Amino acid sequence: MKHFRMPAAAAVLLSATLLVTAAQPASAHEPPLRALADRADLRIGTAVDMTALADDTAYRRTTAREFSSLTAENVMKWESVEPQRGTYDWSKADELVRFARAHGQAVRGHTLLWHNQLPAWLTTGVADGSIDAAELRGILHRHITAEVGHFKGRIYQWDVVNEVFNDDGSLRDSLWLQKLGPSYIADAFRWAHAADPKAKLFLNDYNVEGVNAKSTAYYELAKKLRAEKVPVQGFGIQGHLGIQYGFPGDVSENLARFADLGMQTAFTEVDVRMILPADAEKLAKQATYFRGLLDACLGTRSCKSFTVWGFTDKYSWVPGVFTGQGAATPLDEAYAKKPAYTALAEALSEGR
Ligand code: XIL
């Protein structure tokens, strides 16, 4: 569609001729993403790296300027908040919540139950048998109650369970499933709801952008839980894409079926990686992927937030995890806007 760049001289001529005032050099004071998102009644978010937020002024300024929703990239995970059994450390997470409050930003809670980034005391105890199933269930109950309770009234969306299905639609063989059986999912939602009845409670996973075996497993689970009056209100789509894999085809259709259940939806961790080195063609393709997900979100009122998993390549998790890949965020390592940033701004400008 309208994604083209004309030579600067031609642009000046055209705007002068048509008395168009909108054409501005890239350095002009364009509205930040959050201002555009406000007009579209959408929260635009980012994951926040607390070390970068403390140490890097440009990072801090950009976080404040561009986004209306923040997610802790790591500091609300169980290993961070309860590193020793019974000893909580909310300091970093509280810092994030304070920053958000100071800048008029909402906070997504991420995440209460996952198979990764669990404290060692817990995984070791389960592995050596010193924590049995009944005790584990009590530990999970206490964790959810403590964490949701600690942030009560300050989190608008909680990722209650994260990545509980395999790609083939079967439940992940995590310690939760092994020890507690599938009922741990409903329990987690009930306990979270009891601790903060106003927070919207989400399922969250990757590879669920389009309609496929995994997203269908979530759809069936959500339908069943809601029929049983289990308080699950949202479906979170992480959105970790790579341009080498193609764009998932039926994202809008997927969002629509969750909306039909009466649920909210959200893109929770969007990034679009590529095989390095980046070049103009790959960056242009990346921009269409970001825009494709955002357009799908803007296309349904059920979609309340669109969060990128980091906004600058300087701190992205991608190169550390996916060997040879990177350049996955909307700003480069020097905070310069990539085509992906422009694509997000354009989509937001066009609104719902
Ligand atoms: C990642 C963080 O970005 C990394 O810093 C950390 O080392 C590992 O976790 N799905 C999720 C996120 O739900 O919590 C993960 O975040 C990325 C994949």
TrEMBL record:
Report the leader peptide range: 1-28
Reaction(s) the record says it catalyses:
Endohydrolysis of (1->4)-beta-D-xylosidic linkages in xylans
Q: Which Pfam families match?
A: Glyco_hydro_10
Listed PROSITE patterns: GH10_2
Q: Which domain of life is it from?
A: Bacteria
By its UniProt entry, which InterPro entries does this protein fall under? Answer: GH, GH10, GH10_dom
Q: Which Gene3D superfamilies match?
A: Glycosidases
Q: Tell me, which GO biological process terms does this entry list?
A: xylan catabolic process
Q: Which residues form the GH10 domain?
A: 27-347
Q: Which UniProt keywords apply?
A: Carbohydrate metabolism, Glycosidase, Hydrolase, Polysaccharide degradation, Signal, Xylan degradation
Query: So what EC number does this one have?
Result: 3.2.1.8
- List the molecular function annotations (GO) for this entry: endo-1,4-beta-xylanase activity
**Family to which this protein belongs:** Belongs to the glycosyl hydrolase 10 (cellulase F) family.
Give the matching PANTHER family: BETA-XYLANASE, GLYCOSYL HYDROLASE
Q: What is this protein called?
A: Beta-xylanase
What is the scientific name of the source organism? Streptomyces sp. R21
